[in-house]
Amino acid sequence: KWRQENLEYIELINKIPGPPTDFLILLSSKNNLKKSKVYEFLQVWLGTGLLTSKGAKWHYRRKLLTPAFHFGILQQFSKVMFDEADVLVSKLEKECHKAMTSIELFLGDFTLRTICETAMGTRLQKNDERSKEYITAIYKMGQVIVDRIKRPWLFIEFLYYFSELRRQENKLIQILHSFTIDVIEKRKLDFNKDVYIQPKGSKSESKEPKKRLALLDLLLNFKNQGADIGDEGIREEVDTFTFEGHETTSTSIQFALLLLANNPNIQEKVAEEIHSLVGNSNRQFTYSDIQEMRYLEMTIKESLRLFPGVPIIARMLTSDLMTASKYFIPKDTVVHVQIYALHRNPIIYPDPEKFDPERFSPENSRGRHPFAYIPFSAGPRNCIGQRFAMLELKIAIASILRNFRVLPVDTPSDLKLMMHLVLKNSKPLSVQFRKRIYPQL
Ligand code: HEM
Q1: Would the CB of 241 count as within 6 Å of ligand 1?
Q2: pLDDT tens per residue across span 3-14
Q3: Is 396 exposed, middle or buried (0-12, 13-18, 19+ CB in 10 A)?
């Protein structure tokens, strides 16, 4: 009961927070970049990669890794996303006659496969034992971390050391680390050969590399060029991207589908936008098609307002802080930034429960405080993968709506939100899929 009241249900902490300027003062502060204690629970897996590091190490890595999310690189990653979206669509075809489809596993599989291929260059194979073991370990590891967060007595290292949870963690860490280390070793060998050489006779002989570019290649490249990052550092970052880059995107796509299923007019408007770009053809989307999908982007932004995949973040203050609303918060205080509550502030978002993508039209966005909408956090420690995430969300949702009509099963009023590692419903979300038939042009 204590756990439910204190940690699980968002409703209980859905109080109106301070003004966006309070968030600005905290999140844009150059001093208060340190994360809270719970982030340390991730370190056994992620080491001190970008998400969990602090001080000079964080500064150095952030600067080093920022070019890895340049739009030219994202364009290359989009190819992986298009192919994985095709795999997702072909799986969903088989769901079209069903009265309901639980979408968690479909989207979890899509985002995990996408991040493994873009981060490590590894295509997870359904029938490969090693891939299966790795996928299972990722899911179980998420549960172990959540179970620890929910048991405050296990915050004490001594008690945790002798717990069953730690024994489980040890086994999982072995699987997770050995998988990433093997991938890095193999990639290092490939990297020294001909990663960017075109395959003879390939359709796109001009630019297509033999192996698709992965974030790992960029890290190896940085290392070869003399950056201060060793194999262990590369593993930390690859694991960090894999961790940060799959559940966040999966849960965000699921909530967006729930909202679209329950708002057919908005769904049809998105489908029309897609149709206006690709007509009745069955060609794959291009990167520029995706850039053109402005209404879809507004829809996703509104969905992330209502259901920010990361609803709360925390900082440990390393210096005293005076907020804009004149609260004095002393050094060493843990401050929770309640993104979920901020996004439902009726002063900023009138009728806040209403799903209304028009809030994000260029006219309506004008003048809104930049810290009033922060699904990817804000300031120097914001999400480095936000453009990657938006691209992936757009590709997944556009691919689904191009092929299917999505009908409601769960409704927003049925939801019982939980804080897992990301925002989740207390039970997996379901919708119905029906084949979308476009009129002949
Ligand atoms: C819809 C999907 C996503 C959401 C809602 C999201 C949200 C966030 C938020 C709120 C933070 C700040 C965390 C904090 O201050 O504790 C963050 C940090 C981070 N995110 Fe994301 N994220 C998403 C997708 C991704 C993806 C796809 C990647 C990588 C490919 C990624 C990589 C990271 C990293 C490395 C950090 C730490 C950055 C730093 O501290 O410098 N995220 N994300």
Answers
A1: yes
A2: 444 444 344 344
A3: buried
